[in-house]
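At this stage, I put together a protein sequence along with its fold in token form, as given directly below:
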Amino acid sequence: MEELESVEIKAFVPAKEYEISKNFYQDLGFIMESDEAGIAYFRHGNCSFLLQDFYEPKHANNFMMHILVKDINRWHEQVISSGVVEKYGVTVSDVTTQPWGMLDFIVKDPSNVLWRFGQNL
């Protein structure tokens, strides 16, 4: 019997203000590959997600994405230097060492979606 093959998995990230969120993710360094019918496909390297023109506060306030990176300090510097904190009023934490064996920092996007950028120790 032939084994089933998976190709990719993507999350649908909610956006309170779709146009603002699309700009935010591009400013953060993601590439918008497509944008049709209220769904924008974003990628960075091998990582991707779908931004949706949909917002439910309870959902967005409890939604979390995790992106594993090779160099957490370079990512943190890039996020800070991108100007997203000033331009969008978002939150970016310092890089911290976590008890689960990672360095990480968080970014809350304009819809209050929490992104955790992490690097394995």
In short: The longest strand covers residues 102-108.
